[in-house]
Structures
1.
Amino acid sequence: MLQASVALLGALFTVGVCYAAGSLTLQGLNLRLRPAEHFPLGMILGASVAHLGVFALLILNLGYKQVVIGVGTLTILAAVWRRPWLATLSAKDGSPRLPLALKLALGAVFLLFTNLYIFEAWKPEDSADGASYHLGLVARYLREHGMHKIVTNFYALISSGVDLLFVPAFAIGRHSAAALVHFAFAMVLALAIFAYGRRIGKPWVGAAAALFVYLAPVVGIAGTSAYNDVAVAAIVFAVFYWLEIWDAERTTGALVALGLIAGYALAAKYTAFVMLPYALGFVAWKQRRWKPVLIVAVCAAVMIAPWVARNWIWYENPVAPFANKVFRNPYVHAMFEQDYTEYLHRYGIQNLWTLPWQVTMRGDKTQGLLGPLFLAAPLALASLRSREGRRLLLPGLLLLAVYPANVGTRFLIPCLPFFSLGMALAISWPPALMALVAFHAITSWPSMIARWAPPYAWHLSGRIPYKAALREIPQDRYLHDRDYQYRAVRMIQHYVPEGERVLALSGLPDSYTSHEILVSFQSAFNEVATDILNMGWEDLITPTAALEFRFPTQTARRIRVVETAAAEKKEQWSVHELRFFANGTEIERKQEWRLRAWPNPWDVQMAFDNSPATRWRTWETALPGDYLDVDFGRDQQVDEVRIETSRDQSTVRLRAEMMDPQGRWITLSDKPVELDSHWPGSIRRAVTHELRLRKVNYLIVEDNDWGAMEFAKDPESWDFRIVARQDSATLYRVMQP
């Protein structure tokens, strides 16, 4: 019970800090909101300010638990002293109110689901992304007392404005506190939608739309996990709301608040960037003067600039981990970005015309459900007949326009407030809205979802986890009994010495271990390490082929091998070793050689290291002009260029060239002879050596991972030792020679 109480305290503390920061900001901007608006809009505004404060503490290496809590406490005390909410809460609100019967009925539905949600958020965090990178990075920031350059997890490169709010919560109450903070955003979103209904004089519309969103199954499961999707929905709706407030009042303070929230939207999630041009365009259209637009832009930049600057300085890419072909860097491979974004565009769905049915009724492929009510979402178009409907649907459609970037159901959550309000406005008649709320509540209750949705659709289980939430079932036992991956990370925590990192071929909930988990696909470093590991068992990628370019003896200072055709089917060009010969003798490699490569210059040394376990790769589809280039530093006689490579390249076409004294590239040969090649030593021992060089001394493999059987049947041939085994996961030690 103590652990549960501390988790709740951590969440309440964080929400209190956000509301205090927001209230003080509203007071400083001389903004007075309506009573129903003050808490939801104040908290979201405060969240933007608080996230910036946490960012500053982490960048300055002040991310100590005591410092984070101390700064938050001072913020709350300042608000208690200044009492910025008193003027608003004591103000008269002339907006219409819900009839008592309607208020009781809708309130009962809200409380019923809130009772379910709060215990789901309160129980030990076991969501896939929440227990891994969302809280894994938060835990690491707190362990290291700061935000440092992380090159082994591409999620660390993404702006994480919501996740930083988990830092104070996690510092106090660990995982559940963070999930409860996200749940607070779900409640804030519902309150903001309801407040908007009151602002436009139709509280029944606001109440129904709030429940349309709040009861949606994907909102229930995502909003009670340590994710950020529901918080992002609250933020983008707040941008819209502040535009409405500014349009009604035309104050500079409203412009400042608008700019801060619009910038925070992008800092929270890249796909929410559309709210910033929308806000700028709306202000420009309404005022037709540059100064109000500039105020919004500058305030937005305050939120965005820290993330852009961090990524540019640390990762050489202001929009990392994307656009890696524009901002080339050694941290994320362009091929990974291509494969990753292609998957997010489809989620394995062959016919995208089935997406509406998938996200509403099935959810087994898109990871979540909106519920059958949202099959009626086109009804929102009928709200275009009203001014409010036209204003609502434009940002909703803008957010929908970026949805194809990731067709997971939860990426529709930011659209829901706008379309739900549009649907409610289109219907408007309270009895009909009440019937729809009842239908949505019944079909969205977890035990009912199981009757109409596939068994693997992502939604809440239906049984309210009181005992787990209150820790009558201890957290470790609860997670141990439910999640084999949790058991795997606890095995790592128990057997791996402190400071050692572990290469994992599959993702793990690394927030439950203090060790750095190198997930195979999450960075360029991890992908190279995994490629090296696979070299010991996958014959197709081992150096079993050689391409020899033979030509009359030439005196050359600089020679290169260049790709001459576009490869097919995303085929890469790879080279294990590039060698040069004269009169049948290999030219000895020297330190003064200057090595160049395109498009992956950072790994060029791998083609000159005499290791069969490493290879230089383009890490993107081979294109004409890709090259490996060697400057010998002096004139050198050469009559043969040999490439030792693998047999996984069928459409790569190469040419050997030399640079003449005038700086022109002259063809030496474009018809290489293909020969068989064989490495005399043990490639597996070479793999082990390369892993040790990269300080990868432990490996965790699940039975269904590629290569798992090869490691298991003869670990001695690799110089691996089995340290422990848990369920279907084996922990190996990479032995020293």
Note: The chain has a mean pLDDT of 94.
2.
Amino acid sequence: MATDVLGRPPASTSTRKRFLVSAVTSGRRLAIDRAARWVVTAGGLAIIVSILGILVFIVGEVLPLLHPARVEARPSLAVSGTPTALLVDEHRTHAATADAGGVISVLRLSDGQEVSRSSLLPPAETITLAGAVGTPDGRGIVAATADGRIVGAQVAWPVEFDSRGARTTLPRIVPTLVVAIDPQRRPIGTFAARFAEGGGLSIAAQRSDGKLMLVREEVTTNDITGETSTAETRRELTAPPLSALVLDAEGRNVFAGTSSGALLWWAAASESDAPSVASTGVAGVTSLALLVGDRSLVVGQADGSVSIWFPIRQSDESFRLERVRDFPRLEGAITAFAASPRNRSFFAASDGGDLALLFSTSNRTLWRGRAPGGAATALVFAAKGDGAVAAGAGSVTPLTVDNLHPEVSLRSLFSRVWYEGYEQPEYVWQSTGGTDDFESKLSLTPLVFGTLKGTIYSLLLAIPLGVLGAMYASQFLHPRLLAYVKPTVEIMASLPSVVLGFLAGLWLAPVLERTFPALLLSFFLVPLAVWASGLAWRRLPLALRGRFLAGSELFLYLIVIAATLAGCLAASPLAERLIFGGNFQQWLLASTGLNYDQRNAVVVGLAMGFAVIPIIFAIAEDAFSNVPRNLVAGSLALGANRWQTVTRVVLPTASPGIFSAVMIGFGRAIGETMIVLMATGNTPIMALNAFNGFRTLSANIAVEIPEAPVGGTLYRTLFLAALMLFLLTFVLNTAAELVRQKLRKKFAQL
């Protein structure tokens, strides 16, 4: 028989074939393993990159909120005299100036060319003017004459487009309106005026005898005949010498300041001629302005201070001017304000040459610098809020304003803010209103509060049921029963949250409103009934209980729970009559002052708790089941009973996994959207009351983002809310992992 060099018989052909097949199979397996490792690694990296990409995108949308406002001055344009009034067109191509003599000059801002020139008074008039000012609405220029009249002219800015689409602005001055204030033709002191929508003027002017005249001249045009008619109303008030005057667009509220620092307010709705008086301090009032909406009054004083005031309702239902917020002082007395027609931002100028861009709601100084061309004698904000024009002695300077998100600051987002019409500072989220004068309220604090409130109420139900249910299932149920119970509970996690929210909002909430006493009874009777049924089960003969699998009493408990709940529902009307006087909602309001809203935190707690229980149960059950069996066997062998073994050995050992289950459930509840969206009423209020609604960060994003203008303040604030959710879940998961690792090391020696 032939042998090889080692004396061994040669391998058979079949053996060699098996060796070759084995080698090929091993090589193929190694290649598959290597490919699988690369696929898994690539998938993990792709997930990490995707998450980081989402984070970068969110941060990119939020960062513009932090950009400071910028004000850039364009080259100054030379003008004759010192302008005391300014107007600018919507596109900032032309500006109209007027000096103390009432000469109106329209300039082209691109090159300073004067395109038209006229006077407030007809050429035949020889009466001199006592001063000219631009109206706060930016529609015209008004001046007082030395013979007791108010004259005004509106400036229109019609636009034409040529065949190539190029825009051309054609300034036009509307014929002058003249209103006699003093029949004795005496000079007029401090005055203010606004143009009415259909024509005419609303005027507040102080005569030389000290009387304050309120005149409203309305011009109406017949749409059919084209005829015009004028109606005039007058009111005479007694006032001290005034240093500043301003009135609202409807001419219904007049605000005035004195050189002694007093602030006066006459309301047309008041039957009394006596004004409401407030003190601004010892410094005299030098300038007044109303912000958009005509609710916030800006007060400038001789010491350079700038403050915001508005009427506040008092306990006797009257209104009183209150000082709401102050800004850092400017150098010198305040000489001029220019309010933005888009939001609560405004320019303030002083005779010391300071110029500041301020924002009322967030109480921010957006920008501060030196006025171009020296101390500003007149200011005007462009209609789009993207520019302004400042005038000084012999010059006019266009300003470019980059002021996209003035409403946002840490104070406005997370602190109490005193909003217009509110009696005190509050946390408020109200992003939109019925008019363009609405003041956006973007406090995220009510949303954070609502997020935590909904999470806590849901976890109050989910943690005990999830953890204790997992303990019972893993330690007391027979494996054959566990094979049915665990998948059944895990299937609950697959229920869409929109379905749970739908059921909670449209079915559970009305049912709970009618039968809330049944829920209160069930909190006491269900545990008692389960405990009693457990005692009864234990008293059955061991021979009888031994015929059933371990944990079979679970079905008894389910029957008892269902029967007890049915009994609670049946007893609900009787309990409501005996305990709550027949109506739980009325009893709650009368006893505690709390309202019962149909969609409230209790409904959300039940619905969202149902959604979170499967997650906590599944992870906690795995943690209990992964406890080494030798620890259990050793404890039982040393004489401990089953309950002692579970609570003193299994529970501490499984605590890292249980903690992870709770934190993952916490994260699931924080990010829940549809349930809270459909079951809470979405009222962004801050109250611990379990019987009212709330709004969470996630639900707020879902509600607001479809209506938020892309790139606007609301849009970016919603991305900030998303970033907060992202960071909150990241911090929670990181903390959970750190605590889990610490607990794992602590109990690793058991």
Note: Residues 266 and 274 are 7 Å apart (CA to CA).
3.
Amino acid sequence: MRTPWRRWLVVLAAAVTLTSGITAPFVVRAAAAAPNQSLSGTASSMYQTNGTVDSLAVSNGVLYAGGTFSAVRPPGAANGTSQTTRTDLAAFSTATGTPTSFDPTLNGTVYSVAISPDGSKLYVGGSFTTVNGQTRNRFAAFDLATGALDPTWVPSANGIGHSIAVYGSTVYLGGTFGKINNIAHKDLAAVDATTGVLLSGFTATADGEVASMALPADGSRLLVAGDFNTLAGQSEHAIGSLDPTTGAPETWLSNTILPNTPTCNSDGTDVYINGTVAYVAGEGAQPGCYDGDFAANVSDGSLVWNSPCEGATQALMMVDGVLYKGSHMHDCSYNEGGAGGGFTGALARSFFVVYRLIAQNPADGTFEHWSPNTNGSNGTNLGPLAMATDGTQLFVGGDFTSVNNKAQEGLARFAPGTSAPPTKPAVAPLVYPSGPDQLAISVPAVTDSDNGVLTYTLYRGSTVVGTATAESWPWAQPTVRFLDSGLKSGTSYTYTYKASDGTTTTAASPKSTAVTALATVPTYQSEVSSLAPSLNWHLDDTGTQATDSSGNGEVGDFEGGVTTGVPGALSGDAAIGLDGITGYVVSDQPQPASTDFTESAWFNSTTLTGGAILGTSSTPTGNGGTNDDTVWMDNDGQIVFAMDTPPVTFGGFPGFTNTTIRSPHTYNDGHWHQVVATYDGSTMSLYVDGALVASSAATATNPFEGYLLGGYNNIGSFAHVFGFGASPGGPTSPNSYHFQGSLDEVSTYPTALTAAQVASLWGSGAEAP
């Protein structure tokens, strides 16, 4: 049984104790001990095409691929070398990926392939008008036993055939045509599976492209997806359900998921049925419009789940109980939680990081651990366009020319296994004195394209300090922290670490900077005081206000759902708990405008909906006014720092008025972390747990007197992808502007602290887990 990512457990890992005094590590989101899906993230051997593959089907150990190509070649062969002629339709062994002798000649693109229920025929549709020199207007059939063109199945369309579905003795044809067999039947028709004669009893038509069709095993309804607004004479956009015999419209309750407005219009690109559930893929016509996938019950179309990730989805397929998705996914910030979304990181669309292959839990749409990747090329730049399976393997076709950064065009094959190794740690551990004769070590997690649960081993020299297990994703990699105690004060130590997926262990990370263990470490409060804060809230209060120990009288008011006296970040300390709905703390008086500053807070959360940690607002309550200098957590646990800056141009879009920097790792792990945001008049810097995680040149726009807020701010003006058009859920991550979790030790400073000061501040507070 697979364990969805939402069921993470935070546990303490057992230390490998080799020396007296070595302390067990504490870890983040330790998860199941095995991968959640069966396919390797490393592609198996597969012949390539010299162009785009638009459609795939499998029958009796053979993969049929249709598209726009003129030749196939072995894996590893450069385009134009070792080629075997195949024109727009080819067949390959599913066991070896090598081509069969099937070699028809078509004079146009093949957009759709489908197998008859008995496995005897291959039906194809496209833009072609001849096959093997014989007239075949956009649709044709082949005898799979002989490979011969079927002489009797000759339906004729006056436009492109984009989709085919077969059930019993009926073949459903979809595309962009006006007539079938010279009889008016716009974009959708049904014909006899043997003769190709139009079935006049099926009356449904569409007013736009029919891109995909599917029927359940019992043939109870025909689901139709595409770029239409009218289906069977009724107003129906992008997805609909029909009676398979008459074509009469049937109830489909999820027919409003794909939007249809002047600013956001999405098409249905693929519909796939597995058992009692239909999975539907969408593509937005405008940038930022719905591009995700959703699941609905076949019986009535009632919604099961919706995953509105941006980046057009083109293909869906189930293998061994896991749903695989082909898209150019780049933003899942509307999906609640870490692995379900949050990743965008880009200020403008020209900076998107794209994940073109992904696996989803079919029960709720959340992601499984499988993330090989392709590029997008050959004109459309989409990447995967079609998927098929033989029951154990996944075949992918598309417009790509590389898979996992290796040359491979048009086709890819993924077999069962966990052969993809973890990425080698590229960053050295971060080490700080955190107590008498004790060092705190922070290890950045790495990722693995077919196994998200990795084990990390920390070394002091050649001595194993301990091991820890954590779950990570390519877009959301946590940190793993260790405490090494019982050390010799005055002695310097260095550390390295390795990652393992249980099969492959990486080489060691770079060596850390040598750090000296101390007999005594300054207390956190003494460190704060030495830096002359403008405001310092301990947040250990029991009343309705936060007292200020800076000496400047900058008290804070507790607003909404605030709980006092919760366990704090420091030993024996208390903090406040925030409900993520109404709770926050706000300064009683506005803070002076400053051209340079530092904001700092400790936070502890497992939230999946993000929220503001610190920020400045011209009003102490509500969403109004001007907001600036904001630190928030994304849905996936990444930390973001944003400032208002003068208008600049990104990706050709003028007028972008803020600068945003983001941590590469995640911190919603149920442990205490410190965030420090600084601005020195020219550079924004973001530190988490004493380490610089992001920085950017920036020019502040009109600094103003504003109220300091902890646990809330209006993030709407910051959290978006600039110039990306309409969006299905408003501004991108986070889903909530209120932070849910614990907040402690909030302080501000009238200057930008140095990296050394930030590290010292963190080290004095990083006591026990």
Note: Residues 524-765 form a domain with the Jelly Rolls fold (CATH 2.60.120.200).
